[in-house]
Amino acid sequence: xxxxxxxxxxxxxxxxxxxxxxxxxxxxxxxxxxxxxxxxxxxxxxxxxxxxxxxxxxxxxxxxxxxxxxxxxxxxxxxxxxxxxxxxxxxxxxxxxxxxxxxxxxxxxxxxxxxxxxxxxxxxxxxxxxxxxxxxxxxxxxxxxxxxxxxxxxxxxxxxxxxxxxxxxxxxxxxxxxxxxxxxxxxxxxxxxxxxxxxxxxxxxxxxxxxxxxxxxxxxxxxxxxxxxxxxxxxxxxxxxxxxxxxxxxxxxxxxxx
Length: 258
Hints:
Layout: H1 2-13, H2 24-39, E1 45-48, H3 55-62, E2 66-71, H4 74-86, E3 92-95, E4 108-113, H5 124-137, E5 138-147, H6 151-157, E6 165-169, E7 177-187, E8 193-204, E9 207-218, H7 222-231, E10 234-240, H8 242-245, E11 251-256
Helix pairs in contact: 2-3, 5-7
């Protein structure tokens, strides 16, 4: 099943996910600050429904918000909880599908679904189901924050790879050794979906150890996603760009309708 392959992708990646960043802690703080500015209230009850290993959830908890994290990957969600505890934070996490959130109605002030997580859902029916669940668990006029890649540009250009990123990481591999990360994209004939391969080259005793993680995304355009959000019960959906927000991806910002 597709959801099982996505969970497997992030289960396998959970221990090494931080290696895609040049400085994960700096990214945590930067992303948390950008999202906090959009939330605009103190100690909001926040659900990060695609928390991964905690990049946005930890960043928001550091800003004083009451954050709950869920993710399809049990290993990623468990690591997010451990990373939060290591920083002295109370971050509750659980494994859950964003199309079936295990919370009562009107539980949260804000729902975050960041880092291109929603496009793992490959049909309008699934995306609409997830957005409807986010609307259900939000309080009246609650805030939705969804980030994706800039797919309107990417569908036009159809890139097939990303340049290698070379980082020095001391905490996991020791000695400030280099790691290398790059991506290959294999576009489907429909021009909207693509198979994705994430390559990680990790130092291992003077040699390179290669890990490859594979999944599929839907290059969901901004107007189409905003339309689905409106159909799910959100009002005033609009896109905010990185140069405006300081967040690394475009953000769909909307409010739960009455």
